[in-house]
Design goal:
The chain contains six helices and eleven strands. It has 246 residues and is of the alpha/beta class. The protein has two domains: 85 residues, Histidine kinase-like ATPase, C-terminal domain (Heat Shock Protein 90); 144 residues, Rossmann fold (3-Layer(aba) Sandwich).
Length: 246
Amino acid sequence: MPAEKSPSASARPPRRTNFVEVSVTDTGRGIPDTQTDRIFDRLYQVKTGDATTEHGVGLGLFICRELVRLHGGDIRVESTVGKGSTFTFELPMKAPEESRSNLLLVDDDPAMREILSSILQRAKFDVATAEDGNQALLQIRKHVPDVILMDLEMPGMDGPTTLQEIRREWGALPVVLHTGHVDGPLLSRALEWAPFTVLSKPCPMEQLVQTMRGVDRRRSSETEHKTNPQASPTLTPGKAKEPVSA
């Protein structure tokens, strides 16, 4: 009986776009058509009638399929008895990583900083944090963020005073105020340094993420000084509102 050739591997154009496809071909005994649908089943072994080829426990191809599917791909086989088999797996190509916007989170509550930071990082923001206005200004002077999410009521330098300094030094840097004081004196003071967007506490996390993404998209598509610095936001408790020109 002639010796079997070693398996060969090759890559070829995939059936689906953004996927890579790899085939491994052997010149072995082949697999009967009646069994090709089952060879990836757990503990299944091909029945050839030859005890010398029936070894193992039937886990190899099952594990291969699970690994490929775990990475978002699939595996298949084409086989002819007496000629050999071709196993082909396809995997999605890694998409280019999206650029992540830089966000500065300013809040004096450690628990709130931790929760919001975790949520915004999962939303593909690079998050830096500060616990009050003084720390926030130090952070901005080191690296100007793309967008700021800031509480109003903080010890030391509060939100309105911090916003005032931001406007004086960095102009129309996008700011979202996250506050439970949508109708109090703190927000009245902050209005002098509009435009900004307001989210009232408590705010659904999905709404928070959508708002931050929307503000960031506008930042990336507009000229920094396009917005009228004397604009005032329209406020509705629990809703994020866009700044409107006066």
